[in-house]
Amino acid sequence: SDHQLDYPRCPSEMNWDTHFQGFESPVPEFADVGCGYGGLLVGLSPLFPKTCMIGMEIRVKVSNYVKERIDALRYQNEGQYGNISIMRSNAMKFLPHIFEKGQLSKMFFLFPDPHFKKKKFKARIINECLLAEYAYCLKEGGLLYLATDVEDLHLWMIDHCEKSPLFQKVDEEIVRNDPVVQHVLYSTEEGKKVERNNGKKYMAVYERLSSN
Ligand code: SAM
């Protein structure tokens, strides 16, 4: 559980050098929150070779798997995949200890655990309090990507984003032309599973507004 997780006291204590390869002083700009087996990172890595991306995953075995997956990709493809990495962490805690204000340009919440029971709604990774933290970590104009196959959770997530003064929904037309969206829907392991089962997918993209 959490007490075994080490958090830096503040973002300047984060040592990103150990995470990324081939960068002078790397700082991640994309965060995949609850990244699972890392399919999104692997899919986006060649699309944004100059951008560092960090996956956050709470499960030990899964985060170890992602580390090994990335190590193997780096080994097999020299000079590639140095821009993606994984950290084991509880993303519902201490995000502002990890990221500077406005550090991120994209955050991903893809197929998060739905927590169906009303009593468990507070465990949902999109809520009023955490949205304010995500807004803090995102730069103005930064994007929050949401995807799920659970309609009830989709409605919950967009309802919270709509209520937040810090976010505005991105127009469908712009979303359609965003090359990242294909990966959001089809590159993650959960997205692939939903695809195999012919499940419906819901997605939305919100932009971080300026706070003043
Ligand atoms: N995004 C991936 C995908 O689309 O394939 C994984 C989806 S999976 C249903 C949800 C993941 O979020 C699980 O791997 C779970 O361990 C992770 N997770 C749940 N709560 C978390 C938290 N507080 N911090 C980090 N990861 C979390």
Automatic annotation (TrEMBL):
<comment type="pathway">
    <text>tRNA modification; N(7)-methylguanine-tRNA biosynthesis.</text>
</comment>
<dbReference type="GO" id="GO:0005634">
    <property type="term" value="C:nucleus"/>
</dbReference>
<dbReference type="GO" id="GO:0000049">
    <property type="term" value="F:tRNA binding"/>
</dbReference>
<feature type="binding site">
    <location>
        <position position="110"/>
    </location>
    <ligand>
        <name>S-adenosyl-L-methionine</name>
    </ligand>
</feature>
<feature type="active site">
    <location>
        <position position="113"/>
    </location>
</feature>
<keyword id="KW-0808">Transferase</keyword>
<feature type="binding site">
    <location>
        <position position="34"/>
    </location>
    <ligand>
        <name>S-adenosyl-L-methionine</name>
    </ligand>
</feature>
<keyword id="KW-0819">tRNA processing</keyword>
<protein>
    <recommendedName>
        <fullName>tRNA (guanine-N(7)-)-methyltransferase</fullName>
        <ecNumber>2.1.1.33</ecNumber>
    </recommendedName>
</protein>
<keyword id="KW-0949">S-adenosyl-L-methionine</keyword>
<dbReference type="GO" id="GO:0008176">
    <property type="term" value="F:tRNA (guanine(46)-N7)-methyltransferase activity"/>
</dbReference>
<comment type="function">
    <text>Catalyzes the formation of N(7)-methylguanine at position 46 (m7G46) in tRNA.</text>
</comment>
<keyword id="KW-0539">Nucleus</keyword>
<dbReference type="InterPro" id="IPR025763">
    <property type="entry name" value="Trm8_euk"/>
</dbReference>
<comment type="similarity">
    <text>Belongs to the class I-like SAM-binding methyltransferase superfamily. TrmB family.</text>
</comment>
<comment type="subunit">
    <text>Forms a complex with TRM82.</text>
</comment>
<keyword id="KW-0694">RNA-binding</keyword>
<feature type="binding site">
    <location>
        <begin position="188"/>
        <end position="190"/>
    </location>
    <ligand>
        <name>S-adenosyl-L-methionine</name>
    </ligand>
</feature>
<dbReference type="InterPro" id="IPR003358">
    <property type="entry name" value="tRNA_(Gua-N-7)_MeTrfase_Trmb"/>
</dbReference>
<feature type="binding site">
    <location>
        <begin position="90"/>
        <end position="91"/>
    </location>
    <ligand>
        <name>S-adenosyl-L-methionine</name>
    </ligand>
</feature>
<dbReference type="Pfam" id="PF02390">
    <property type="entry name" value="Methyltransf_4"/>
</dbReference>
<feature type="binding site">
    <location>
        <begin position="57"/>
        <end position="58"/>
    </location>
    <ligand>
        <name>S-adenosyl-L-methionine</name>
    </ligand>
</feature>
<keyword id="KW-0820">tRNA-binding</keyword>
<dbReference type="GO" id="GO:0106143">
    <property type="term" value="C:tRNA (m7G46) methyltransferase complex"/>
</dbReference>
<dbReference type="InterPro" id="IPR029063">
    <property type="entry name" value="SAM-dependent_MTases_sf"/>
</dbReference>
<keyword id="KW-0489">Methyltransferase</keyword>
